[in-house]
Specification:
Length: 300
């Protein structure tokens, strides 16, 4: 199988070049090609690639911020068109561990009609393992102190950062929803894969270290992303549920998550009124089916 490394970037040349160095310094060749999809690129990366003569790297830059949704879609599309069988999706703040990738590829090769093989995330700032998208926790992360007993664990979705995607669904027109721009694009895509009969698994022995945005508060450790993200986080979850099949119960779970986030905002988070306004705006736009990027959020 041909395996491509597919990196997303937004104004982060240093980290992208660091990832490329990790690949080149690995004693084991794990990728047939490297693909970089950059938003508003500075020109630094293509200059270095030309200087070093690295013709095994494909670089694409766009004059707008694609966001995580369109970037993931473009990476999978370009990898599929380029002849890749598997695309290892990585954000610019990620890293390449040859053993992790090798174990994901090995698992992928053994699974019929694969959609994605996900690593087992380990939250370094919490000391816990994260399994996402299981049947008992379809919308949330499930934190456990030790790896799960199963070698592979079937799930509905997981994070795209460090995920190994099959390009077969892409070739059949099953792609991430570009219009989501930021947040839940991997959940929506995972649900789409599941609806079309593609299998997705978390591979226990492929551990991906993740320093997610958690803060310690008097209520415990809570996820605390920038305030503007909560508009998309709320809106896109509703949009994903609306176009999913046979998931009416998820609306109740989404309502619970909304109320919980409002409570956490009031009790322990900053920018309270702005966050609450963005949360409510996200609910409204999600119900109305609004998919446009909200350019004015920075002025709220």
């Amino acid at each position: 199988m041909k395996v491509w490394l597919a990196i997303s970037s937004y104004k982060n040349d240093e980290n992208v070049l660091r990832i490329i160095d990790q690949v080149h310094n690995s004693p084991k060749r794990i990728f047939d090609r490297i693909l970089i999809v950059d938003s508003e690129g500075t020109g630094v990366i293509p200059g270095i690639l030309a200087e070093k003569g690295w013709d095994h790297i494909t670089y694409r830059s766009y004059d707008q911020n694609l966001g995580s949704g369109a970037n993931l879609c473009e990476r999978l599309r370009l990898a599929a068109e380029g002849g890749a069988d598997l695309a290892y999706a990585l954000n610019h703040d990620g890293y390449v561990d040859a053993e992790v990738v090798t174990r994901l590829v090995s698992a992928a090769e053994s699974i019929e009609k694969l959609g994605a093989a996900y690593p087992l995330s380990y939250f370094t700032n919490r000391g816990m393992y994260n399994i996402t998208g299981t049947r008992d926790m379809p919308l949330s992360a499930k934190l456990i102190p030790a790896p799960p007993p199963q070698p592979i664990l079937d799930v509905f979705w997981s994070s795209s950062n460090g995920a190994l995607y099959s390009t077969n669904p892409t070739k059949r027109g099953i792609i991430p929803w570009e219009a989501m721009w930021m947040a839940w694009e991997d959940l929506d895509y995972g649900w789409r894969l599941s609806d079309h009969g593609y299998r997705q698994v978390i591979v226990r022995d492929a551990v991906f270290r993740d320093n997610s945005e958690y803060n310690r508060t008097w209520l415990g450790t809570v996820l605390d992303k920038p305030a503007w993200r909560y508009y998309y986080h709320t809106r896109n979850l509703i949009l994903a549920i609306k176009r999913s099949r046979n998931r009416p119960l998820y609306y109740l779970i989404a309502a619970y998550r909304f109320l919980l986030e409002c409570g956490l905002t009031v009790l322990v988070k900053g920018n309270k009124w702005r966050r609450l306004r963005l949360l409510c705006m996200g609910v409204s736009d999600g119900i109305k089916g609004t998919v446009e990027r909200r350019q004015f959020l920075d002025q709220l």
